[in-house]
């Protein structure tokens, strides 16, 4: 579930709307340099979703053998590994931002005017899915 909320830059005073998180049918990624957001529809990345689902099914079909391996059981999270692989493939699909930065799921929120990360977030104004 994603949200929209008001934001204010503590460096330049710019007021703006912040969107964070994707929805049921899209992902929202952000540029690590300028903070620009990009929406990627799940219909655009169906092969990536299919691969992710396959990775999860493989994990559950081999859970018995993994559980017998003590080290793997204690130190390897196959769901997390599949999720990270999927997130990286979505980021690769998103490509580069016009500013030269990379779109990622983990990029910080930035002021659209000065690109500062010193932002004060206000109340949530919209929930979306």
Architecture overview:
There is one protein chain. This protein has 129 residues and is α+β, with helices and mostly antiparallel strands. It has one domain (2-128). Helices cover 35% and strands 29% of the residues. The chain has helices at residues 46-61, 63-68, 70-75, 78-94, and strands at residues 2-9, 15-20, 26-31, 37-41, 103-104, 119-128. The protein has a three-stranded antiparallel sheet with strand order 2-1-6, with no helix packed on it. Strand 3 (26-31) and strand 4 (37-41) form a beta hairpin. The model has no long low-confidence stretch (mean pLDDT 83).
Helix/strand layout:
Blueprint: E1 2-9, E2 15-20, E3 26-31, E4 37-41, H1 46-61, H2 63-68, H3 70-75, H4 78-94, E5 103-104, E6 119-128
Antiparallel strand pairs: 1-2, 1-6, 3-4, 3-5
Short description:
The protein has about 130 residues and is an alpha+beta fold. It has 4 helices and 6 strands; from the N terminus they run ββββααααββ.
Task: Measure the end-to-end span.
Answer: 5 Å
State the helicity in percent bands: 25-40%
Number of strands: 6
- Write out the strand line-up for the largest beta sheet, numbering strands in chain order: 2-1-6
Q: Please count the helical segments.
A: 4
- Please tell me the overall pLDDT: 83
Question: What overall geometry do the principal axes of the alpha carbons give?
Answer: elongated
Major sheet size, sense and barrel closure: 3 strands, antiparallel
Q: Report the sheet-strand fraction.
A: 25-35%
């Amino acid at each position: 579930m994603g949200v929209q909320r008001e934001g204010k830059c503590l460096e330049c005073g710019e007021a703006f709307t912040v969107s964070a998180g994707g929805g049921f049918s899209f992902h929202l990624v952000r540029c690590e340099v300028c903070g620009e957001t990009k929406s990627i529809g799940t219909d655009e990345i169906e092969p990536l979703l299919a691969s992710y689902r396959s990775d999860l099914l493989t994990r559950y079909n081999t859970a018995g053998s993994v559980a017998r391996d003590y080290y793997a059981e204690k130190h390897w999270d196959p769901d997390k590994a599949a999720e990270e692989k999927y997130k990286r493939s979505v980021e690769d699909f998103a490509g580069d931002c016009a500013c030269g930065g990379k779109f990622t799921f983990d990029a910080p929120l930035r002021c659209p005017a000065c690109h500062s990360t010193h932002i004060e977030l206000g109340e949530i104004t919209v929930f979306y899915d």
